[in-house]
Automatic annotation (TrEMBL):
Protein name per its UniProtKB record: Cysteine desulfurase
UniProt keyword Iron-sulfur, yes or no: yes
GO terms of molecular function: calcium ion binding; cysteine desulfurase activity; iron-sulfur cluster binding
Annotated source species: Lactobacillus equicursoris DSM 19284 = JCM 14600 = CIP 110162
All residue ranges annotated as the EF-hand domain in the record: 120-143
C-alpha cells in the first residue's frame, strides 16, 4: 500500500539534493570548524558559506545568524535571555495564546519567577488584535513574542505592523518563524524584527538544527556555555554537514516563488473542500481561507467524528495527517490553538484534523487523500447517526 505524507507542518522529507550534500560533507569535511589546520579551515568555510546564504534570505548580516539545535532552543534562548538581560528595565512580556509550546512553557516558567506575561486573545481566524497589543504594551514590557505562521491553522500575523508598533517602545520583537521560513517572505529589516527562530527540518532540511537571528547590537546571555563557537554565543562543535544541508535547503526555498507555492497549496485546499462538498460530508473549516494565511495548513472539523479515530483510520488507509502540533500529538490534551479560537466547549476541539502540504506533494496525492477522507467520514458520520 502506498503511503502518502500530508503532515508537513510536523516535519518535511529531506530534499534529495540536501541528502547528497550532507553525505558528501560527512565524507569529505569531517574537520572541526574551530581547528586552525587545513581540515578545520575547510569546515569553517562550509559553515560560513551557509551562514551567508541564510542571512541573505532574510535580509540579515552574516554575524546576526547563530546556529542552534532548532526552533525550541532558539525560542528558549530569546525568552530567557531577554528576561535576564532586561530585568532592570521591566519584567513584563507579551505573547499570544496560540504560540508553540516552547514559547508558552518558557513564559510560564518566567511567571513562576516573578515576571508578568500577557497572553493576547485571538479571533476565530487565529489573529490577534493590533489594538489589544497596543493596549498591552507598557514601559515595563521587555519582549513581544509572536509567531509568523501558526502551526495548526496557518494564520499569518501582520509582522510588519507589529514590528513598527514594538519599535516605538522599550520592548524587543521576537518572531517564531519555524512555519514561516520557506512559506512566506521574511525580511527582518523591513519587519523590524529583533530576534527570529527557525528550524531546518520544516523546510526539507535536517532535523536537530536551526538558526537564531539576533539583531546586531543586541547580545543575549548564552543559553549554553562551553567553547567559543558561533561567535562566542552558542557553545558546542558545529554540525558542519547539517549546516551545509541547512544552507542548501534555504537556498532551495529562495528558488521557489512564495506566491506560486501558496497558489499550489490553495489549489490543494480547494480540491479537498470541493470533493467533500460533492460527497455531502458535514464539515467545518477551522483554518482561514483568505487574508493573511499560509495555505500549506488545512484544519478541518469532520462533524461527529473523533480526531483520534479519524487519524487512526486514515493512517490505516495509508495517509499521514495529524490532530495538531506534533509536540503534543502523543497526549490527550486538547489543542490550545483551537481552544483559543473557538472556546473550550467547542466540538471542533475533539473533531478536527490538520492536513499540511509540502513542496513535494502532488494533486494526485491530495485527491487520493480526499477520497479516503470521504470514505472514513461517511462511515463515522453514519455510525454516529445510528447511535
Amino acid at each position: 500500500m502506498e503511503q502518502i505524507y500530508l503532515d508537513n507542518a510536523a516535519t518535511t522529507p529531506m530534499s534529495p539534493a540536501v541528502i547528497d550534500l550532507i553525505s558528501d560533507e560527512m565524507k569529505n569535511d569531517f574537520g572541526n570548524a574551530s581547528s586552525t589546520h587545513g581540515f578545520g579551515r575547510k569546515a569553517r568555510n562550509v559553515v560560513e558559506s551557509a551562514r551567508h546564504t541564510i542571512a541573505q534570505a532574510i535580509n540579515a548580516k552574516d554575524q546576526e545568524i547563530i546556529f542552534t539545535s532548532g526552533g525550541s532552543e532558539s525560542n528558549n534562548n530569546v525568552i530567557f535571555g531577554v528576561a535576564e538581560l532586561r530585568k532592570d528595565i521591566g519584567k513584563h512580556l507579551i505573547t499570544t495564546k496560540i504560540e508553540h509550546e516552547s514559547v508558552l512553557r518558557s513564559m510560564q516558567k518566567l511567571e513562576s519567577q516573578g515576571y508578568s506575561v500577557t497572553y493576547l486573545d485571538v479571533d476565530r481566524d487565529g489573529r490577534i488584535s493590533l489594538d489589544d497589543l497596543k493596549q498591552a504594551l507598557t514601559p515595563d514590557t521587555i519582549l513581544v513574542s509572536v509567531m509568523a505562521v501558526n502551526n495548526e491553522v496557518g494564520t499569518v500575523n501582520p509582522l510588519k505592523e507589529i514590528g513598527e508598533m514594538v519599535a516605538e517602545t522599550n520592548a524587543y520583537f521576537h518572531v517564531d518563524a519555524v512555519q514561516g521560513l520557506g512559506n512566506i517572505d521574511l525580511d527582518v529589516q523591513d519587519m523590524k524584527i529583533d530576534f527570529m527562530s527557525t528550524s531546518a527540518h520544516k523546510i526539507n532540511g535536517p532535523k536537530f538544527l536551526g538558526f537564531l537571528y539576533e539583531r546586531d547590537g543586541i547580545r543575549l546571555p548564552n543559553l549554553i556555555y562551553g567553547g567559543d563557537q558561533e561567535l562566542k554565543r552558542r557553545a558546542g562543535t558545529e554540525n558542519v554537514p547539517g549546516i551545509a544541508g541547512f544552507g542548501l535547503a534555504v537556498e532551495e526555498t529562495q528558488e521557489v516563488s512564495k506566491a506560486e507555492l501558496q497558489e499550489k497549496y490553495t489549489n490543494f485546499q480547494k480540491l479537498v473542500l470541493d470533493r467533500l462538498d460533492q460527497a455531502g460530508i458535514d464539515y467545518e473549516v477551522n483554518s482561514p481561507l483568505t487574508g493573511l494565511v499560509s495555505h500549506h495548513v488545512l484544519n478541518l472539523r469532520i462533524k461527529g467524528a473523533s480526531t483520534y479515530l479519524l487519524i487512526a483510520n486514515l493512517d490505516l488507509a495509508g495517509f499521514a495527517i495529524s490532530g495538531g502540533s506534533a509536540c503534543t500529538a502523543g497526549s490527550l490534551t486538547p489543542s490550545h490553538v483551537l481552544t483559543a479560537m473557538f472556546g473550550p466547549d467547542s466540538p471542533r476541539i475533539s473533531e478536527s484534523i490538520r492536513v499540511s502540504f509540502g513542496r513535494y506533494n502532488t494533486a494526485e496525492e491530495v485527491a487520493a487523500f480526499a477520497d479516503a477522507l470521504i470514505k472514513v467520514a461517511k462511515r463515522m458520520q453514519e455510525k454516529k447517526t445510528q447511535d
